[in-house]
């Protein structure tokens, strides 16, 4: 079934007052086309019509018609910037395609996420992720923790073997 056919079914559902099937159809479409801003706007409009300000703010975050109340409700429901960024469910960086208001909101959110993780946001094939360490020195603390963990496991095994040797 094409996206146009699904949208026609959504319109028919809404006309009959069947909101739940319409929400499900729009959810499947936005999952299939996560970077389609028009689908996001339709989904936000449906949640706005139902009075769900958190979801209207989530799906309208990248649109120009999201109200400050919706954005505030989304931010209050999900206080972590990384969580909000991941909840947008976008794959590629939407910055070039959004309008000025949504672009400013997104830039602020990316900035907040970078402050939370102390790593720049990197757009990968699965969406935004903290950028990997640039050099081996950036990963040195993790390497040292791993080595220390292996040493502790080795000492525990050695102690266990020694204990079993004493008993038997």
Secondary structure layout:
Elements: H1 3-16, H2 19-32, H3 37-50, H4 53-60, H5 68-77, H6 81-87, H7 100-117, E1 121-124, E2 127-130, H8 140-167
Helix pairs in contact: 1-2, 2-3, 3-4, 4-5, 6-7
Short description:
The chain has 168 residues and is mainly alpha-helical. It has helices spanning 3-16, 19-32, 37-50, 53-60, 68-77, 81-87, 100-117, 140-167; strands at residues 121-124, 127-130.
Q: How many distinct domains?
A: 2
The strand order across the widest sheet is 1-2
For the largest beta-sheet, the strand count, sense and barrel status come to: 2 strands, antiparallel
The helix fraction, in percent, is 55-70%
Secondary structure class reads mainly alpha
Shape: elongated
Enumerate the spans where pLDDT stays under 50 for 5 or more consecutive residues.
Answer: none
Query: What would the average pLDDT be, to the nearest integer?
Result: 92
Strand content: under 5%
Order of helices and strands: HHHHHHHEEH
Based on the structure, what is the oligomeric state of the protein chains?
single chain
* Radius of gyration from CA coordinates: 24 Å
Specify the number of helices: 8
Q: What is the straight-line distance between the termini?
A: 71 Å
